[in-house]
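Aim 2 progress. For UDP-N-acetylglucosamine diphosphorylase, the working sequence is reproduced below.
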Amino acid sequence: MRSSLPKPLHRLCGRPMILHVIDALAELDVQRVVVVVGHGGDQVTKTVSELAPEGLRVEFVEQVVQRGTGDAAAVALSAFSSVEDDDDVVVLPGDTPLLRPATLAELVARHRDREAGVTLLTAELDDPTGYGRIVRGKDGRVSGIVEHGDATQQEREIHEVNTSIYCFRRALLAPALRRLGSSNAQGEHYLTDVVGVLYEAGYPTHSLTVVDSMEAAGVNDRAQLSVAEAELRDRINERWMRRGVTMWDPERTYVDTDVELGKDVTLLPGTVLRGKCRIAEGCRIGPNAMLEDTTMGERAVVGTVHALHATIGSGAFVESFVTLAPSVVVAESSRIAAFQSLAP
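Predicted structure tokens for this construct:
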């Protein structure tokens, strides 16, 4: 049985994967974001338009025929005007949800400080199988990238790999893309070949090696999806605990990206908060509670409760083994006894 993985819209911690990437970009001083979609990308366009960070300018262009990453970059540049030639362009894939904004900011800063034609993000991997290898010239600069399928045995022994994350000088990228060929294992136009084109033309080609290689990890199957989600949940839990939220067992506590927690909230083991939950100061939840798109007022307490689109008033106490159906409102300071299913 074949199982597909709809990468751009597959959710991690309640948010589509591509939105995690766009969220990282939104932390930079970017003028616009262009998303390249394939045939039938209407759902991607709709979802990103609805959920993108407020105030961020996002545009969409379609790559009608899939001719490779180089062609995708050329399609994306069609959205830019010639007056933007002096700008820098950050190019990154939509399946790297663990990328941190600080890493992107450092990449751009290094690119500008060194007045580079291109600066790429690299990673050192114990097992680089499947990744493009970084090849360096005698001057130490990146002279090219060789895809795994095209690499010699000697090149495959290189452990520094390409992450597919770049910062280009805009005026150099378009002419370099026009020089790309398709004489490779895939018969495609590789964006990676632009690095070699710029190096041979004498432009500075620099790199930044990411400290945590997990940041650049792509998601190509469900095993990698599980690893990425676990890492994201660890980050979310750590952030909330540093803000004053108590988690008795963080490894068994699941909080989605869009959840908001007040100070001194306590989450017992097995608690799952999904969607746009809004939990006010001093609440206590669990163990083994599952709340989705639910609001809790200050100092409310719920036990092993399943609630969907419910509202729980301040000071209310909902005992264990209670189900709250959508639109149920639990009054302030009220007590709901165990073993009930409440409907509006």
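The two ends are 42 Å apart (CA to CA). This observation will guide construct design in the next reporting period.
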